[in-house]
Structures are given as C-alpha cells and as structure tokens.
Amino acid sequence: MSATSGRVRVSIVGASGYTGGELLRLLLDHPGAEVLCATSRSLAGQPLHRVHPNLRGRSEMLFTVPEEVPASDAVFLCMPHGEASREIERWLDRARTVIDLSADFRLRDAAVYRAWYEEEHPAPGRLASAVYGLPELHRREMRVGAEPARLISGVGCNATAMNLALLPLARAGLIERAICDIKVGSSEAGAEPSAGSHHPERSGAVRSYAPVGHRHAAEVAQELSGGESGGFPLDVSITSIEMVRGVLCTAHVIPTGRVEMKDLWRAYRGAYSGEPFVRLVAEKSGLHRLPDPKILAGTNYADVGFDIDPRSGRIVALCAIDNLMKGAAGSAVQYMNVAFGLDERAGLGFAGLHPC
Amino acid sequence: MSATSGRVRVSIVGASGYTGGELLRLLLDHPGAEVLCATSRSLAGQPLHRVHPNLRGRSEMLFTVPEEVPASDAVFLCMPHGEASREIERWLDRARTVIDLSADFRLRDAAVYRAWYEEEHPAPGRLASAVYGLPELHRREMRVGAEPARLISGVGCNATAMNLALLPLARAGLIERAICDIKVGSSEAGAEPSAGSHHPERSGAVRSYAPVGHRHAAEVAQELSGGESGGFPLDVSITSIEMVRGVLCTAHVIPTGRVEMKDLWRAYRGAYSGEPFVRLVAEKSGLHRLPDPKILAGTNYADVGFDIDPRSGRIVALCAIDNLMKGAAGSAVQYMNVAFGLDERAGLGFAGLHPC
Amino acid sequence: MSATSGRVRVSIVGASGYTGGELLRLLLDHPGAEVLCATSRSLAGQPLHRVHPNLRGRSEMLFTVPEEVPASDAVFLCMPHGEASREIERWLDRARTVIDLSADFRLRDAAVYRAWYEEEHPAPGRLASAVYGLPELHRREMRVGAEPARLISGVGCNATAMNLALLPLARAGLIERAICDIKVGSSEAGAEPSAGSHHPERSGAVRSYAPVGHRHAAEVAQELSGGESGGFPLDVSITSIEMVRGVLCTAHVIPTGRVEMKDLWRAYRGAYSGEPFVRLVAEKSGLHRLPDPKILAGTNYADVGFDIDPRSGRIVALCAIDNLMKGAAGSAVQYMNVAFGLDERAGLGFAGLHPC
Amino acid sequence: MSATSGRVRVSIVGASGYTGGELLRLLLDHPGAEVLCATSRSLAGQPLHRVHPNLRGRSEMLFTVPEEVPASDAVFLCMPHGEASREIERWLDRARTVIDLSADFRLRDAAVYRAWYEEEHPAPGRLASAVYGLPELHRREMRVGAEPARLISGVGCNATAMNLALLPLARAGLIERAICDIKVGSSEAGAEPSAGSHHPERSGAVRSYAPVGHRHAAEVAQELSGGESGGFPLDVSITSIEMVRGVLCTAHVIPTGRVEMKDLWRAYRGAYSGEPFVRLVAEKSGLHRLPDPKILAGTNYADVGFDIDPRSGRIVALCAIDNLMKGAAGSAVQYMNVAFGLDERAGLGFAGLHPC
C-alpha cells in the first residue's frame, strides 16, 4: 500500500468494457483502495458514466489514455485476448502487482497454450510464475510474506464455475468422467455489438454456441487433474440462454464408485468451510434449493450444490456465479485484497437482489 | 394476375431484412401468390434460411441480385429510407403494382416531407398518387375497376397503431387533443446490429428513445386531420421495452366533450364492423380484457380497445399490433390481396399463439 | 371419418389448459377436421377466448361439460396425470380413437409404471395396446389397414426431444452412455399458477428443477433400449430457463467407438429422410447452425443437430421442439392425420417466426 | 437510538414479502441499525433465506411471530392494505417511530380516502399527523428537534415516480394538465402468485392493467396541487411490461405557457440540487441520455429527466426508480436515517449494475 494514503492505489487499463466497468463500480467504493485512473483510448476525456451509466454521480473521473497510467500498487488489465501478454513487461514495471483479466496467463504450459489458442505465447517466460486466480486453490501464492504476487491471472468465467463445482470431487478422487453443461448470459461476449448479440436474435435464444471444444476446459484440466486429484476426462458444452449476467455449470459426474449424499457433504464442506464467497446450496426442497445465478447478479458469491441420481449413481455438481463478478472483476478485487493483506471481503459485500 | 399461373407473381426487393423475411414467410405459403425472386445483394446465391432460419426446408430458392428481378405482377420494396424513391420509376416499369414498405411515399405533400425528413423528396411527382396503405381508410383506392393501384405505400408501424386507435374517435369528432404513448419492441429498428441493440444493453431496457418529435406523427396527422375528422393536436412518444415484436399504442385523448362507453362502442363498431383484421377488445374484466401485442406475434390482427377515466373524462384508446405484420409485411400482403381481387384474408390466417 | 361431413369429428376433453388451447388453435383451422366440442368444467358456457385470447374472433364455440361430449371420431384427452386412465373405458366407448395427452399410457409395462409413478396403474390391461405416439418410430401402428388405432398415447415433451436426438444413434448402436441435459420453458408446468411460476421468481431463473430422476427417462429407455438398439445407461437433467415455450435437449453421448461426422450424417439421414417434421440442422457456421427452440414456437418441427468433440470423441446430439406442439398438441394432430389417413402435414403448416 | 448499542434498533413486521425482504437486505448491512426481529406468521421459526434466498449466509435470524416484537426504536410495517391502520396504536406503543409501507396513511383527508378506497378509514385521527414520506418535500417533518416523527407513511411506488417527475414543474407553476403514462414491473404486485402473475401469462405481456383510475393519483394530487403549486388535472395510466423491478413514469405535461430547456434545467436543478438520491439525466445524445429503471435495480436513486416537443411545446418529464427501493424499502430506510439523525445515505450506497 502507498505510504501516503494508506490505501492500495490502483489503475484500470481498458476500463470501458464490462469488466472494467465492474472494477470501477467495486473499487470506487472500496474502503481500502484508491482509483488513480481508468483508461480507454476511444473515450479519453469523457466521464465514466458515458458507458457505465450506473456510475453517474459517483465519480468525477474522466477516462485517460494508457500512456498516462502512473506508478501504481496494482494495475488491472482488461484487454482483449493476446494484448496483455504483449505488453506485460511494461505493466509489471509500472506496478507492484499486475492482475490480468484476459486469458493470456491462465495456462502455465506454453505448449498447452499453443494447442488451444493456436499461436505462440508472446511471453512464455511469465507463464510459470503467474498465479492462477482461484483463491480457493491458490490463496497462499497471492501474498508471499508481506509481498503481493507480481502477476495474478484471472480465471475464465466458465472455468470458475467448473472449478468450484468439481474441486471437492476431484480432491476426493471421486471423478471418473465429468461433462460440464454450462448455461451462460450475453455479457460473457463483452461490450462489442455483433450479429449474434443483436437483441432480436439473441433475446430468448437457446444457442448451442460451443457444444464442443471450449478453451476453458484446458485450464480446468490443468487445475483439477494435477497433484492430489488425479486426471479424468473433462467435457465442456456451453449454451447461451436468455440472461445478461450469470453462469450455471451443471457438471454431470460419473463417479469412480458409489457415493452417498453424506460423502458429498463431507467433501464440499471440507473444501469450502471458511471460504468467504462459496455457499453450499443443496436443500431437499424449496424453490431455491439449488444454486441459481439469477440471485447472484452483482455479488461475488459462488453458490455450489450437488445431488445424486438414485438410479444411475451419477453425481450432479452445480455452481452458479455472476460471470462479471466471481467470474471476473469480483474475483480480481478478491485477489487484490488477499495480495495486499486487506480483509478478503472488503468492497465485495453486496448481498444480491431478490426478486430481480 | 398472370395468365399462365393464375397466381399473382411477386418479387421481393431487399429480402434479407426482417420485413423481407416476413413477406417470404407469408408469400411462400400464400394460396394465390407465386414468389418469383427475393433479392439481397450481399447474400446473392445463398439459401433463404441463412438469415431466415424459420424458412429452412420451406423453399429451395436462393437470393438473387436486384438486376435479375423479372417482370412481375407485384414488386415489394423493402429498402432503407430514401432508396425506394430514387429507384421508383425502374420498379414501376417492372411491375403492375409496386408496394413500397419504406417511409418514402407515406406523405402526400412534398413540403411536409421536407419538414419532417429534412431533405427534398426525389420523386415528388409520385407522392399524390401513392395510396396510403391503410385498408381501413383506403381500401377502395387499392383496386380501381379491375386494376390494382400502381403504387401503394406501407404505413409506419407506430402510425398503424395510432391510426387504428384514433380513427373512430377522429371520425366522430371526439378528439380535442391526443397524446400517443407507444411501447415498441426491438425488431422495429431492423436487422442491423448497433450499440443500442446489443443484448446486454437492450435487454430489459425501458428506453425513452423518442419522447418527442417522432416522424410517424406526420402521417397520422395527414390521415386523421383531413376531411370529416377535423384537426387536433397530436403528440407522440415512443418507449422501447423488452419485446422483440409488437407495438402497443396507448392514446390518451382529451375529448371535445363528455362521452360514455356506449358512445365509444358505437364509434368503434361503426368504423370496424366488417374489418377482417380489427378486433375490438374492451371487456370489463379478465386478464385479456384489453389489447396486448404479446398474443399477436405473427398475426395480422390489430386489436383495439378503449376505456374512459370516470374522474377526468379522458379517453384511453389502445391498439396492439405485430409491427412486422399489421405494421409492415402483413398489411402489405393485405394490400396485394385487395389490389388483385383475392380474398383479403388469403395467406394471413395465422391465429397467434398463447401462451408465448 | 364421418360419412356426413367428410371430416374427422373431434372432441377435446380438458380444453382450458395450454395443450387444450393449442389443440383448439390447430383443429379449428384444420382442413380435415371438425371440432364438435371443447370441455371445461369450470368454464362451461363461456367462450373459448376467455382463456385462449388468441382464439378471439375465430370461433363462436362455448366450453361444455364433459358429459356432453357426443360420439366422435377422435377424442383428445388433456387431463391431469392419473385421470385419463381412470376414465379410459368411457372415452373408448365414445370414440373410434382416443388420443391421450397425459402420462398415463406411455409405459407399456405396469411394473415400470409403478416404479416411476409410485402407484398402481388403474387400467393395466390397456397399456400393451396403447400406441406410443412417436410417428418416427410407430407410424405404422397408428393406422392398421383402414382403421385408426384405438388408443394413442402422447409422448412426454422432454421425452420427444430425447427420443429424436438419440434415435439414430441408438439404432446405429453408437451409444455407450447418454446424459441428456434439457433446457425447458415455463409452459411445461401447465396453466395453474404456483409459487414457482410467480413471475418475479420465475423470470430469469436458471432453476435445476429436476437434476436427477425425471420420469421421462423411463419412456425413452423403453423406446430406445429395446430391439435393434440395445440398452445403454441414460441420465436426464432438466433445467428451467427464461422461455415460455420450448425444449432443447443437449444429449452428451459417450460413443461405443470413435465416430466421424460422416457417420452421424448417415445415421441421422437414414432415420429422418422422408420425415415431414424433422429437420437436420448441423451446419459448420452461422448463428443458426444448430437447433434452437426460439424459432420453433407454434410449429410442429423437431430440429435435430449433432457435433463431435475432436479431443474426447463425445457426441453432442441436439433436438429442439416447441413443447406444446411437437411435444404435445402438434404431435397429437399428427397422430390423428396418420390414424385417419389424412395428409400427415394437414393443419400443421405454420413455419414459425423470425425474429421473435 | 438505543443507549446501549448506539444503533437504531429496528423491527420489521410482515417481513416475508418483497418489501420486507428488501428492508432486511438493507438493514442487516446498515452501519447505524440493528435488526431486532423480522416477523412472519406463516414462516415463524424458519430462516430468512427460505423466502429471501439472497440473504443466505448473511444472518442467522429466524422469522418470529408479531407478538414477539420487542420495544424498538423503529418499527417498519409491511402489511396488506387496511391492516396497518387497524393495528396502528399497538405499534405506536411499541416504538418511537412507526414507518408504515402500506397505503393506509398516505392521504391526509379521510373523505378523500373514502372516495378512493371505498371504505371508512379505521384510524382517521392519525391521518393528519402522519408524515408523507417524500424526503424531497417533507424532510423537515421527519425529525423535529432531536425527535423522530411518530408516524411516517411510505409513498406509493408509482406516486414516487410521478411526484419526482412533476414536483419542479408544479412548483414553477408550469403544469396546465399532466398525463402520467407509467410502465411497471411484476414485483409491484407483491409476492403472492395469481393468474396474472403466472409466468407464461405475464412474461412479455404489455398489459394495460390500470389505464384509468389508479389510486396513486390521489396522493400525487394531494402533494402537488396544494400550496405553492396550484392545482392541475392529473391523469394516470399504468402498463405492466416485461420487468421484475422498476417504474418509469413518462409524464406528458401540457404547459401553462411556452417553455425552453433552460427553464426546465432551472426548475429541476432548483428542486433537486443537494438531494442525495435524485440524479438529473437529460443529455442530448447517447444510449443512456434519459432515465431507465433497468440500471436502478437495488439502488435508491430516482433518475429524473425531461424534454420538450419542439412542435407542440408539450413537456415530457421522466422519472425512473426501483419500486422496491426508492419506491418502498429504500425510501423507508432514508426516512429512518433522517428521523434518527443519521447520514441520510447510510446503508443506501449501492450504485446499481450495468450491464444487467
């Protein structure tokens, strides 16, 4: 933290998009942070509320160009895939910690990156030391001694939901095979209009946009197949549904053996007790007995639930998140909190709305 | 009609947009029409279902370029504002009847056109003879003797709802002043993506996109203020709401004197009895007691209702339509049916869905 | 068919619900049918449009009580689960063909029925002879010689989507295991309000309402595991999403061996060429390259598609339908058409809307 | 405030509904309040998250019965219309301040109450002294000296939007006649399911549920027609649209004379500068140039905008709110803050989400 202000001084690069806007919403109200600047080349000189109408009256700040980013405690990078890795040294020079929300530093192995992204990684030397931003797995690497990690990578929003649905089962060695059927909203595709996001086309669509081959599978495999968990085949299928924010991962798990609900409770409680943003939602009845992203908009919660098919023994593991929060900006603030020794919950207290 | 086929041979120019797609849906199944061609410069050579997925398996036709449009009984023009009027002579040469769905030929007075569209009309000589396509007012002009009218102009979708809500009151001289508060869906803006139509922005929006000054006011004033009705001030306000298809016009009418429900019933029944596509919906109770565009998607109905404020005497006149049907393509087929002496209902029999 | 009218004379029992309303919409406009009566005990004497607002102006018929159903060619039963089987003899006495849209006669084995519905079947003697209403499998049993089948059972709406997604793979012996992740709309639950259907709760929900143990699994197992296909484990998971009409079945299939796209094309074309209501939708690109229920509202189409995961070999088989049409009333009219020797497409010609 | 805790000790009566849930969300996180109890007769003994799933993990509190409400600094009453006024003495005995969110104490004149609610008021003696809860008009009455007002009445959600759209114009004497066309979401009708709230019926509806005669007109007339503003005819029309939370009031104002935008800016700035929760949104361009309830969900803002029709001179005044927040629970917390001398913004800092 800065000696002068006592607050973490942060800059946001690429702040005109949805993730940037969400970071601004969180950090402008954060009790332990001070926003130094927010960049947008196309909107430089304009007020934040031009594209983030919810921030009207909340800040007098104007967008600036990236060249004007001052030395900062933390720089958040919200750039298109492939750009952050090209500029990473520059940003590491400008900040004690860089938190990159693109896909560039999620995979530790440059060969795996090449296989899934079909190009060479521009900064392979930084891959191994980037911390994969899943606090539930890597909290201790985010702050080493009294120092924040140098480079923390955001997690794919769909990968977050998969990771948190499956982690306890993977740790317990219960997964023979997993098929993740993921339902997502339209904000996942970002703020740029396209034919597919045109309202008359997108409204009410149930679009199988990535029934096979989604890249987020690679990072989940990396995180859950190593070490204690052992490997298992992982399939991913993504369906766009009528929703703006939100992800629900329905993970169909063929177990390595017969399990009962009490085994699942033990595994999930063991993994998540003490986690400030993971709630177990697995009741026997009621409208809200299982996770639903509908009530998570704006929150940093990951609601996790599970059930077992009494006939086939299949486990259904569920995780719901807000893709822009726990799936992006909310997690990023959580990393910052951990990295700088703040209360991990700081700035992330919104409970969510019901009804909505 | 063609001597050979016994069917009206039609061509659709600009068939890749929403109105063009709707015309194709209607005309491919029309018992008295034969679709000769559908043009789209950018999609020439591709099957219709590339952009009209509902037509998959319904036709083997490919899009063609406009130059290939053959001599036709009727040509439907679905072009951006300002283009049809530039090419109108060419199309009149190619067809017995041209039905233009743009805004180019709705206003009969070139000076009024200039005032609202802020440019000179390219074909002012055609304005006076173009038939304004409201069958409820101009049916007799659409077919003169045994001949179809040469040029019929579509009506603005919002204007259609205003016209049909207000026509009986205007005829009865009951309007002192009218303020039309119109709720519209996203398909009104057409098939081109834009920042405003981007799903995360448009979904759930209640956007006052034209609170004042909408052009459709001009044509309604033209139609309802002349002749028997006498003039009255007309205000229009358009709000975009969560809906793809549909228009609801809520016309708040300050009456010239005290009226009662029986007066309204007389006026509306007088105007619309015998009209094949206008239904009166003004019941005392029930969920569906007044018009709602929700149940009109795909139909050519205009549902019209009314009520009176017992305290202030204000009349509320309502009209709901599907903007792509009674507000565009459906009406256009209705014109064709009238112009060529077919059953006015032909090809327009879909009842609409409930629930939906 | 009746000697006098030349049309199939039909009666609809339980016509106030969503399936009944959809049957009325279809049959009132059917060129080969005549609707004799529509029953609703609670609405007897009231016009159809009281609860089916889309039928306003389409029929003067009033609801009647079930006791007044006359002798009919076909009786359609739209009753709650467990009621049709209690009254089945009465209705068989009243009609040449009974088409039951409840779940009562879908399972041929009374023991299987007991296992899934947890009660004894009231009319077990009728189970074996009821025709399971999947024309793609049982068309020939619906009309034997010149006689319609006596009792045809509707298929579960979710089961329809599963059956049609999986049938070609099952026939080809390609399924080692199948997990069907099904997305459904709110009309599946019928016309009765409940806490779960309350708009503020249901709107935008992504509700895992049956992650395990859904009954429709039983009938799909019955149909696809017998005879030529051989058995395979089948798992079903149902998620309610923001949608009124529509089902998308995403079937994740672990294949018995490595398959390629050309194998799938062969299997699906073999099964469905000549089927009037099954369309194959499996393109390489485009917004509409795979089935989407959004464009099927009101149609009787089942759009079927497929893809293969290049890494894992998993097959994704997709089927989209309108649950009230191909999943209920539309199929029922299709049965009637087949049973009475009419054109199988009669009354089912609606193409569907786009955009919508 | 309590001597012991230094916090305002509050109880919520009728806490299972939507307003009660929203109060719980706000007050459980309020830095200056302590929630003593939340009552629900039907849910007594159950955790709050049974019906308020967003509160899962936020509180261990269980619902209690109303008889167990302890002496409190403030009691919030969230009861059906007509009940609070029957029990008002009991609650005034139990608390220093009662904040009633029903419609019972909004009208100061028992005769006006009778005229609009068609029954005698049960506690007419309390009407005159109840403070009408519009801080922008009655802030000074909410805290007199160092004492909170004894009884503060919530404002109708639609009335809030009308009041705030029209107040500056009324004060400036600019209103000849006003017609408020109000668009509302489904949560206005509360948490009880009904035929009209059944998702398949309500989804996508554009329902003219109160085109004339809405009761909220009475309170707006009371507030804006007295004293400095002078009277004017006020018409109200309410349309339900696809939305859960939110109100947009589009007030069509026929002005007493010609006005220009600078006059409006002066009137609105004069009325609202310094108001913590009113934002002026009246830009010349941009997607978010005018108020939209979409971005206000969960916030206590009232966004107010205006425009002038260049042809007719009609003023369009707009106000957007979240009906459960500024239209109910948020305002109630604002009253409490004022009444007890806390920071008026306390507990109401949520900025709102975009996109959403």
Description:
- Four copies of one chain form a homotetramer.
- In chain A, a hairpin with a 2-residue loop joins β6 and β7 (147-148).
- Chain A has helices at 18-28, 88-94, 110-117, 135-142, 157-171, 199-202, 216-225, 261-272, 325-339, and strands at residues 8-13, 33-39, 72-77, 95-100, 131-132, 143-144, 147-148, 151-153, 175-184, 207-210, 234-240, 247-255, 278-280, 302-308, 315-321.
- In chain A, α1 (18-28) crosses α9, α5 (157-171) runs parallel beside α7 and α5 packs across α8.
- The longest helix of chain A is centred in the middle third of the chain and has 15 residues, at 157-171.
- Chain A has a seven-stranded mixed β-sheet with strand order 10-11-9-12-15-14-13. Chain A has a six-stranded parallel β-sheet with strand order 2-1-3-4-8-5, sandwiched between helices. A two-stranded antiparallel sheet of chain A has the order 6-7.
- Chain A has 356 residues and is of the alpha/beta class.
- Chain A folds into two domains: 8-154 and 326-339, Rossmann fold, CATH 3.40.50.720; 157-322, Dihydrodipicolinate Reductase, domain 2 (2-Layer Sandwich).
- Chains A and C meet through β9, β11, β12, β14 and β15 of A and β9, β11, β12, β14 and β15 of C.
